[in-house]
Amino acid sequence: MTENTALYVYALLPDRQGAADGVTGLDGRPLRLAEVPGTGVAALVHDATPAPYQGGDAEVRRWVAEQNEAVTTVWERVGSLLPMTFNVLVAEDTDTGRSAEQRLGEWVAEQHGDITGQLRALAGRCELRVEVTLDRAAAATADGASSAPERTEAGDRSPGMRRLLAKQREQREKNTAGRLADTLHAGLRRRLLAVAEDLRDRGPAHRVPGETDVLSAALLVRNQDVDAVGAVLSEAQAGEPALRIRFLGPWPPYSFAEARPQRPTEPAVG
User: Where is the composition biased (Low complexity) (predicted)?
Assistant: First the structure.
């Protein structure tokens, strides 16, 4: 029988009694705080076997959603934490006899200054995800690069000519949207940084046919400034109706947490 000789780590957070009460994680596993004496820091964990979670795409998506839900619940209770990515495991060291909890505690104690500094810096702050694109057809119509008469005339052409005209129109729309996206990017980035404390570029989570990327980013925002970010995006939308805006969050600051206990996990996943 395989024993629970590892810890699955969800987050590092201030040591607050009761912060994990009633919270469950992957597959409904009950979570607890692993305290690190003398640091004021605890880890949100469940006891685990020393093997990473593996499964099909649907199962992994479910596990990730369960982890995010658990981390968000505890984050809302304590106001600041450093979330871990999926499958962070700390195993016991059979060579030295140190338990997983001892190894994790040693790492936290070693990195104590950095961890507590990050927890202070992220207190009262959240992550927002912003994805801004341009609808190419709408942008080209506003610019005059796509014309209704041309579409009407194409109906009298041969199938081959219609395909050629459609490709030419699509390329014009793409070029027009690309130029406009370049123009809009810098101004939108500047306005968002006026209300956010940090901005990190990310690849878009969604790619929609017929749209051109303008900006895709994670924002670190004070909780009281979430509405200000929404106002910036609303103003941008009003100024350019061809914009398509996806605004997600608030979430724990996944993109801005630097602490990762990589060294303790190596024996667990190697």
Answer: 139-148
For the chain, strand residue ranges (E) read: 6-14, 32-36, 41-48, 82-83, 89-91, 125-135, 198-201, 211-222, 243-251
In the numeric block, which tokens belong to residue 190? 């500047």
- The confidence score (pLDDT) of residue 168 equals 66
* Helices within 86-225 (DSSP H only): 100-110, 112-122, 136-143, 148-154, 159-193
- DSSP reduced 3-state for 49: coil
What pTM was estimated for this model as a whole? 0.80
- Cα–Cα separations (whole angstroms), residue 233 to 114, 189, 239: 34, 11, 10
d(CA 171, CA 177): 10
How much of the chain exceeds pLDDT 90, in percent?
68
pLDDT single digits (tens) 118-171 = 999 999 999 999 999 998 888 877 655 555 555 545 556 667 666 765 676 666
What is the phi/psi pair of residue 253, to 5°?
-80, 65
Residues 260-263: contacts with CB under 8 Å, at least 24 apart: 260/84, 260/85, 260/88, 261/9, 261/84, 261/88, 261/90, 261/104, 261/107, 261/108, 263/107
Instruction: Indicate the pairing of strand 211-222 with strand 198-201.
Output: antiparallel
Contact call for residues 42 and 14 (beta carbons, < 8 A): yes
